[in-house]
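Example record

One chain of 446 residues, shown exactly as stored in the release files.
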Amino acid sequence: MRATRSSSWRTPAPLATTAIAAALALSACGLGSGNSGGGNAEDGTNSISVWFPGTNQTEIDLVTKTIVPRFEKDTGAQVKVTFLDWPDLSTKLNAAFAADTAPDVFGHGPAAVADFVKNDRLEPLTGYVAKVRTSDRDDLSAALPGGQVNGTQYLIPLSMQGNLIAYHADEFKKAGLDPDQPPATWEGVQAAAEKLTKRSDGKITHAGLLLPTHPIGLQQTFAGLLGSAGGRQISEDGRKAAFDSPEGAKALKYFVGTYQGSSAVGNQLGTNYQDAPVAQQPLVTGDAAMAVLAPQVAEQVVKANPERDIRVMPVPRFDGAGDGEALGGAGPGLMINKDSAHKALAWKFISYMISPETSTEYTKGIGAIPVRASAATSDYVKQSPVIQQFMKEATHFKPNPNVPGWTQIRDTLAKYLEQALNKKATPKEALDQAADEVNTILDSTN
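Predicted structure tokens for this chain:
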């Protein structure tokens, strides 16, 4: 196994992973492609390249030091693994496709799949999935639709995802708040955050609430607030922007108010705290009382700091709206390059990643929500209040629209959200201008 990287690696998080004592036989996975050999039926080559998104050191170590070496031992294959920073992923994939050097297997988020399909980059996986045991398909039934475009499977999710507010229970108690009854509404979250915020000389020194405001985090945060207000990002037919609405204005006004104005409760505008090492997480350093986190980060924070009573609250809603929403659903997954000459081995690798044992090991190792329903009874979930809470809230996780041009739409929306957060435009101005550009993108892709 050869592992490369395209970004700086971080210090490993102090999270233990449970290795499987014996190598798993592929025949036991129930996910084989029908090719009994470990090699590739197309040209006999016994090597593939795989690109994973992200630079989480725990995931890098687990994949490159445990899972892939075991797969290579079981199959006799060779796997060259590369991890890429999320912001660079699409650019480098496009360049690789143009140069005919794209990997056999590559990962991305579900919302990028439609663009790859439109550009004829992906191998349809519906036929492969059809050969999977019925029990396995049922076990994966909540995740598989997130990797489909117009009913055809193209991506196999490796985990389920969502963003929830993690909070420091002891700080709640000190502020006269009940940590056993966290706020159920965004208005309640704001009120609690005001009590938890500390200031010195007019500046916030301890944030009551942190919402993600790095480029991708901007859009993700807004999407959750928008859904909780009863709005949507794109029209139901996928042809027009829908976020320039009263619900959108309400959501963005709330978002801006978290960081600007006399009632501001956050102080890390533009900082990507979500991807910081565990020891530098705001809930660990004491820089914040509440912060929106992904499950793997929340799990790592709790495991690494057992002396701190850090919990995860249900998805808030806005007063007068329906259920709250958080961005989530099927998480990043793996796809097969349509031009790969090693498709049989590529599918065998994907099958291995989502086999029951490896899938549980992977999601446990990175602290993610399991992709298999049966994992709810695993020791990993039963022993983790954090993952239990994320699984409990799974019905409130809503994905980004899977429409062509989405990554460009996402980045365009983030650009105008940033202007609003930095008071360079009013919420209405930002949303109206973003909608004009997004509609142009949608017109060009439909």
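Notes: The chain has 17 helices and 16 strands.
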